[in-house]
Amino acid sequence: MTNIFYKRLFQVIIVALISSSIGFLMMHLLPGDIAMRIAAGRYGPDGLSAEIAQSVRVELGLNRPLYEQYFLSIFNFLKLDLGYSLVSGQSVIEELRVQLGYSLLLALSSFIVSLFIAIPLGIYTATTKNRFVNTIMMYLSIIIRAIPPFVLALILILIFSIWFNILPPAGFENWKYFVLPTLTLSLGLAAVSNRLINDSMNDVQNSSYFKYGRYKGLSQNITIRRHGIKNTLIPLVSFLALQSVYLIEGVVVVETIFAFPGIGHALVHAIVARDIPMIQGTILIMGLIFVFINVFVDILALYLDPRLKEKKDA
Amino acid sequence: MHKNIKIENLSIFSKDKLLVENINLEISTNKPLILLGESGSGKSLVIDALMGVLAKGLKIKGSILLDGVDLLKLSKKQRQKLWGKVITLLPQEPWRSLDPTMKVKDQVKEVRKFVYKDKILQTEQRALKELQEVKLQDFTNSYPHELSGGMCQRLTLAITHTQEGSVLLVDEPTKGLDKELCNSIVKKLNEQVNEGKLLFVITHDLQIAQNIKGTLGVMAKGKLIEYNNTEEIFNNPKNDYTKELIYAEAKYWNIEKTSIQNEKIVEVKNLSKSFGENKLFSNLSLTINKGEIVSIVGKSGSGKSSLGNIILENLHYDSGNIEKNSNYKKIQFQKIYQDPPSAFLPEQILFDGFKDLLNLHNIKEEFLHSYMEEFNLRKDLLQRKPDEISGGELQRLSIIRVLLLKPIFIFADEITSRLDPISQKEVLILVKNIVEKEGLCILLVTHDHEIAQILSHKIINLKNYKL
Amino acid sequence: MPKNKNSFYIGLSILIFLTLFSIISRLIFDYQSDQQDLMNTFSTPSFEHLLGTDQYGRDVLIRISQATQLSFVLSLGITLTALIFGVTLGILAAYKGGTTDKFLGVICDILLALPGLLLVLVFLAFSPGDFLPLYLGLSLTLWIEFFKVSRAKTKSLLVEPYVESCKSLGFGFFYILKKLIIPKLLPMIFTISTFAMSTAIIAISSLSAISVGIQPPTAELGSMIVEVLPYYEEEPMLVLLPSFVIFLIVLALQLMSKRRDYA
């Protein structure tokens, strides 16, 4: 137990280090004079002059020795002073706060919707006598899985925004703007997890302990309930960690395509615009969320499978 | 309570093979039936047929009459209704049949709660009582993986006690378990017979067959080759195979021990070893001379294998001293493993492995072939892979492999516990002969005290070396 | 379980078909992928331009073959790099154990702190549109699976009795490596490779589609789709063709991977 805790703590530190270092590295490795560009960004190309560039330089501490600057950036980080966006001029933390809300909403609802699709589907295809349904779902899952998320997004935009014109394709003004992004992500997730649940359910039904439950005289339903479900969910939990990878990556791509105002979109824009503080901030937040999800998954796994407690301590 | 099961002209076959040929058996109250046979004899198929769980693709002919009702004529659903209520099963290797995510207590409670619909308080009390009966009262809240093999067996026995069926089918009750547990299992099963249950046991274990008195059927290659009262068969076996099987037990071997020579090969002084908190042994001293066979006995997990591994330098020891005769090279100290297939590279054709060995040490191929002849092994066995030949044959090949290196000391780690009784006798007598012929010494790990008595000059019981 | 042998060959044939298509079409036609012909934009398929032209009059057939080749070559290169480093280091970590193992484990933990695409974006932040950050980032991400699996399998093999037996019979580590470890690892490595390649292709095209990956005028399937999106109503084929190609490649790779396809 403690091992996992230290590992995750270590990862939190790494995330913080990486994001803070990016900012520092970018400031100094990119071609061109950073101070000039920041000044140009703030005051416009007309307002640019040597004095203004110099004042920016001093403000950001760019004239101090390198190691001092690095420690300063880390120090600021710890203070949670993430600076100001080079594009909008707003405080990075303020912007992130808003965007984080949108992204979390998107990620969570996509995940929940995918479970609503995958779990019943997976259990049904594993327990039904109708093999045809199972085969269809298998092929359908294979096909959806082979479509990259951004293509899936474009297809859904095509169907719902252009052909049927019932849902908006981009931006965010009301709940309708929420549907397509969520649908895109959850379909991708569900295509894989329903197969996982199907396979897991099949394994469980063929296992010795399941059969013994039946031989003891328990009915099929009771055996599934008491011996099937927990054991089916165990492989799903380790898969959850992978799903979170898909979710975070998907969030970046899907938000950009749908111009959804979340963190993923912000990151991409920041990269294109070289908005260094924003890049740092988004990477930090997304990295931290990822580590937290992993911690949650670890705890869930330990709860479901008693065998892991011993292994981890050994 | 049902009184009688008659199996009449039962045959089971797959698409191209006859797996069980025309057998007739009977089980009645106070006359339990033991079906004795090796793996592949068909006995498992008989128990599957009784339960109604034969694999898909197998066809069955004949009848199984439970008090006159032919079970084979019932529908699948009707047969499933019998599970747990009329026909109960004690499964093979019980640790596999226990839900790893459910506590011990809950797995016992299930039957009374869901099958007999007892009230909650009753089921709780009953479960605790049954667990106490089998001495598992300290493990009510544990999980299956925290229990030893023998404890899992007791757990499933406790579960069986809560069932009220009149038929008890027992599938290989001692497989994978220590020999010492045999007696308690026999006792428990005999109790079931006294309670009026119709008991049917399939096993390869002669002890079980001999001590549950009733009817005995001996199966080999799908045929019932001998069928009579248990005592009759053991006192006066008629069939040759049955004779071989019964006389394979160590107490019938008619052999003399090897002669010890005056050359020290290994000297162990005050050796101690612990595994974590577990003290395996301390202050163990031992000398092994050329020509000598020393046995180590003890329960599973007592560290029997550790001494041998320490001598072979596969394992470190905590304190003490080991001296090996310096006239011999390290490679002349060898080991033979318990599970024959796991000592060979799984996908490698046996001949290739041998060829590599011969080339590595510059040994002539003739030696390999002469040993093969001497040990009665057909040349074509070498063209197969390890999992394609029998355990007895593979173990003999392991011995040859080691002999090619002209060993002086062999650590034989339970080398026959995975073999059937007949192969076991063959291999051990062969080993004794090579000690004489080649002039080496053996450290033998075994759980069979009789074998230890017959073969060895010294017996070490690790119990005596625990502080 | 999906029909394993058949699906493998179907996948393989799709890939072979696409490779041949890509090579042959460029042997027959010698247009450049960025050769513009503004008098001839959006032309319908003809003998001159088998698949028509795009919004700059560039030959679509050539662009698609070029883009397909790019996807193949880049993802293959990334996968091979990840494979070589991952498997070698994995076996090394399992064999040496101790500090080597711990050290490599720490590196893994570091790289695993960020999900794959994020790591690649970190690299791309320095120079969006370049090949090097893309190649480096994806190799670092995909390396981990090869490493973990090789290490776990090698570790489990090394404690088997037959390894101890080989050693006491006088055989060395390289014998065991050659006869046991590598044959056992090969099927697993193959499965991971097909999965890694499809991940790489999806990542590359997604990154181009959101304008931080490979940029026009380089022909890349993802950027081609997004470029032509505004003209969807007039020329749907221009959007559908590259999408279909990506879909085919990924599908083929997934069909070729034999393991249960969700991890």
Helix fraction of chain C?
A: over 70%
Radius of gyration of chain C: 22 Å
Cα-to-Cα separation, first versus last residue of chain C: 15 Å
How many strands appear in the DSSP assignment of chain C? 0
Query: pLDDT under 50 segments of chain A (min length 5)?
Result: none
Strand % of chain A is under 5%
Class inferred from helices and paired strands of chain C = mainly alpha
Poorly predicted residue ranges of chain C: none
Quaternary organization: heterotrimer
Kindly name the structural category of chain A.
mainly alpha
Count of helical regions of chain A: 13
How much beta of chain C, percentage-wise?
A: under 5%
Largest interface: A-C, 52 and 42 residues
Largest sheet: number of strands, sense, barrel closure of chain C: none
Radius of gyration of chain A: 25 Å
For the secondary structure, the number of strands of chain A is 0
- SSE pattern of chain C, N- to C-terminal: HHHHHHHHH
Largest sheet of chain A: none
Question: What is the fold's blueprint, element by element?
Answer:
The complex is a heterotrimer of chains A (314), B (467) and C (263).
Chain A: H1 2-29, H2 34-43, H3 50-59, H4 66-78, H5 92-127, H6 131-145, H7 149-163, H8 176-205, H9 208-215, H10 220-258, H11 263-273, H12 276-304, H13 307-313
Helix pairs in contact in A: 1-4, 1-12, 2-3, 5-8, 5-10, 5-12, 6-8, 7-8, 7-10, 8-10, 9-10, 10-11, 10-12, 11-12
Chain B: E1 4-13, E2 18-28, E3 33-37, H1 43-51, E4 59-66, E5 69-70, H2 76-82, E6 87-90, H3 104-115, H4 120-133, H5 149-161, E7 167-171, H6 181-194, E8 198-203, H7 206-211, E9 215-220, E10 223-229, H8 230-235, H9 240-247, E11 264-275, E12 278-289, E13 293-297, H10 304-311, E14 319-324, E15 333-336, H11 350-361, H12 365-374, H13 391-403, E16 409-413, H14 421-438, E17 441-445, H15 449-455, E18 458-461
Parallel strand pairs in B: 3-8, 3-9, 6-7, 7-8, 13-17, 13-18, 15-16, 16-17
Antiparallel strand pairs in B: 1-2, 1-4, 4-5, 9-10, 11-12, 11-14
Chain C: H1 4-28, H2 60-96, H3 98-112, H4 116-126, H5 131-158, H6 161-168, H7 173-209, H8 221-228, H9 236-256
Helix pairs in contact in C: 1-2, 1-9, 2-3, 2-5, 2-7, 4-5, 5-7, 7-8, 7-9, 8-9
